[in-house]
């Protein structure tokens, strides 16, 4: 089946996750197109399923993702769809941070009137190598709050993405796609 993954990324972690998901779909016999939401991504019509992912910064998703969903809402609501958020908050040891991500996501999707069948939340990364000095200091402060007791060196990058979890979620989405295909054949 044909799957489209559209992503919005700031430092590249969401793109990395989208590529990882695409590889899993390929390994399971699906055709996959990945597209950055800022680079004129394809519309949903020619695909059987669509996954859309965005990083969260300052409690907001990427504006390019918001625009893509608004412009393609009718097509998205007619397909098997999923949404994945990527944030540092999901790497937090604090369950309240996880709940905050879920609330931000629910509010975002509700305002757009989009109802994806699957919603996933993934931990992102700290990419200090891509930050200017002020952002390094800000992100280190946030990271220390999210992960108390952990030493954070602004000269290193930290990846918190749980790749096994991403694989499980991707396979879960692929399973839904298989069920849809079987249902259509009967």
Automatic annotation (TrEMBL):
<protein>
    <submittedName>
        <fullName>Menaquinone-dependent protoporphyrinogen oxidase</fullName>
    </submittedName>
</protein>
<dbReference type="InterPro" id="IPR029039">
    <property type="entry name" value="Flavoprotein-like_sf"/>
</dbReference>
<dbReference type="Pfam" id="PF12724">
    <property type="entry name" value="Flavodoxin_5"/>
</dbReference>
<dbReference type="GO" id="GO:0070819">
    <property type="term" value="F:menaquinone-dependent protoporphyrinogen oxidase activity"/>
</dbReference>
<dbReference type="InterPro" id="IPR052200">
    <property type="entry name" value="Protoporphyrinogen_IX_DH"/>
</dbReference>
<dbReference type="GO" id="GO:0006783">
    <property type="term" value="P:heme biosynthetic process"/>
</dbReference>
<dbReference type="InterPro" id="IPR026816">
    <property type="entry name" value="Flavodoxin_dom"/>
</dbReference>
<feature type="domain" description="Flavodoxin">
    <location>
        <begin position="4"/>
        <end position="146"/>
    </location>
</feature>
<dbReference type="GO" id="GO:0010181">
    <property type="term" value="F:FMN binding"/>
</dbReference>
């Amino acid at each position: 089946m044909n799957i489209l993954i559209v992503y919005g990324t700031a430092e590249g972690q969401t793109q990395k996750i989208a590529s990882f998901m695409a590889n899993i779909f390929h390994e399971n016999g699906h055709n996959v197109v990945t597209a950055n939401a800022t680079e004129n991504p394809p519309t949903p019509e020619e695909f059987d399923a669509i996954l859309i992912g965005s990083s969260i910064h300052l409690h907001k998703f990427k504006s390019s993702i918001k625009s893509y969903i608004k412009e393609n809402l009718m097509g998205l609501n007619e397909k098997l769809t999923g949404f994945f958020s990527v944030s540092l908050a999901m790497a937090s040891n604090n369950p309240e941070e996880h709940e905050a991500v879920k609330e931000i996501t629910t509010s975002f999707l509700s305002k757009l009137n989009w109802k994806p069948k699957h919603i996933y939340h993934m931990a992102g990364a700290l990419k200090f190598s891509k930050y200017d000095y002020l952002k390094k200091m800000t992100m280190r402060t946030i990271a220390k709050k999210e992960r108390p007791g952990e030493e954070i060196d602004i000269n290193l990058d930290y990846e918190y993405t749980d790749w096994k979890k991403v694989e499980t979620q991707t396979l879960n989405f692929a399973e839904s796609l298989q069920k849809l295909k079987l249902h259509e054949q009967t």
